[in-house]
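Input/output pair, single chain:
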Amino acid sequence: MTDSIQIVSLGPGDPELMNLKTVRALEQAETLILRTERHPAAAWLREKGIPFSSLDAFYEEAEDFDALYARIAEKLWQEARGRSLVYAVPDALSDRSVDGIFRLRPEGAAVSVIPGVGYPDAAMAADRSRLSGEGLRAVPACALTEDSYDPALPLLITEADSAALAGDLKIILSGYLEDETEITYLPDLSAPAPERVRLYEMDRQRQYSHLTAFLIPGTEVTERPGCTLEDLDRIMTRLRAPGGCPWDRQQTHASLRPYLVEEAWEAVNAIDAEDPDHLADELGDVLLQIVFHASIARDFDEFTLRDVVSAICRKMIHRHPHVFGDAEFATAREVSDVWEKIKREETGSRTVGESLEDVSSALPSLKYAMKLHKKIRQLPGLRRTAAALAEDLRRLSGSVLADRDTLNGEIMGRLLLACAELCQVCGADGELLLHQAAEEYKKRFRAAENFILSDGKSPESLTFRELSVYFKRVEEGN
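Output:
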C-alpha cells in the first residue's frame, strides 16, 4: 500500500463548522493524529468515540519551532509507512507542520488536503466591520518575522499561546507601528469575542492559547513610524503619478545620473566618519535612487524593481557556488578568482583580455585603472609584488620631467597607473586614498593659513620657503 497522509482542517474550534468531508475522514480514519490535543475538536472526537493520538509531547522536546515542525513531519511519515494516515490541524492552509509534510514527502508517497473553515474566516466573521479581506494574511505567531511583515496590509496572527510569545510579536510590530495603535484581541477563535486593545498591551491580556489571535489592521505609510522597501516603491509611484510631484515626474535616467554618484560618495563619507546613523541616512538616499530609476523604467516598460532585485539575487547565488552549491574554497583568494571566472562566463568573455572590455570606461580614472589591474592579475605571471611595484615607482618618478620644466605625460601616466596597481595589490581603494589625502592637504593648508593670518601676514606675500615654515608648524601641532 502507498504511504499516504490526508490532512484535514478542524477549523477554529466549533465542530459544527467542520464540513461533511472532514467529518467523514475523521470517522473513517485508520490512524488519526492531531497536531495538538488542546483544541475543542478533541472533546468532540471523544464524544464520538473516535480514537486519536496527538503530538503535544513534541512541543516540550523541540529546541525551536523549525526543529519542531521538522520532527513532526518525520514522525508522520514514519507512521504512514504502508498505510493511510489522517493528520488533523486547526487550519491546513496556514499550518507550518503541513509545509514539512510536503517538503519531506518520500518518493511515491501521496498527500491530500481537505480544506475547511480557516482562522481567517473566523476572524473576519468576528470583526468584519473593521477589517477588509483584501490582502489579509494569516500567520502563526511563531512564524512572524520582521522581514515578513507588510504593515500596509491587514494581518491575522494566530496561535499566540503565551504572554512571552505575544511580547516577541509586540517587539516586531512596534518597529513599524505606534504603541497606541488599536488592534483586535481574539481570546478564543472557537467563540470569537473581539476586544479592542492597544499594541503596547499585546502581552498583558488575560488569556493565551492555541486559539488566541490578534488582528492587526493595515496602516497607511503616513500614519506609522516604520516603513518597508514596498512602502518606498509605493511612495515613488505616487510621486510620479498624475497629480504627484512635477519635478519627480519629469526626471529621466540621464537627469538622475549625477545624483546617483553624489549619493554614493556621501555614503562613503559617512563610512569614513564612522557614523552609523549618518550612514543609514545616506544609504537611504542611495536606495531612493535605485527605486527612482526602477519607477522610471517601469513607466517605459523597461524593467521593474522586482527585476532589479531578482537580477542581483540570481547573480549572488550563481557567483557563490561554495554557499549555494557543492563547491568548496579554502581561501578568500580562491573565492575572488572564481568570482572573476564566473563573471567572464556570464558576459561571454573567453579570455582575460576580452574581460577588460567589461570594465566601464565611465568610471573615475583611478578606479578604472584599479579594476583593469584586478582582472589582469588573474594571470599569475603578472601578479607583481608590492616591493617590485615600489621599485617601478622610484624608477618612473625620476623620469617624470622631460627637462626641468616640461612634464613627460607618458611617464606620468605610467606612474599613476603603477600607483593604481600598487593600491590594488595592497588591497587599498586608491580613489578613497587620493580623496582622503586631498582632504588632509586642505586641512593642513587652512591651518597654515590661520597661522599666517594670526601673525598679521598675507599668504600671497610669502615665498615657498616661508610658507614651508608654517606648514611645518601645522605638522608639529604648534
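The domain at 229-318 is CATH 1.10.287.1080 (Helix Hairpins). The mean pLDDT is 87.
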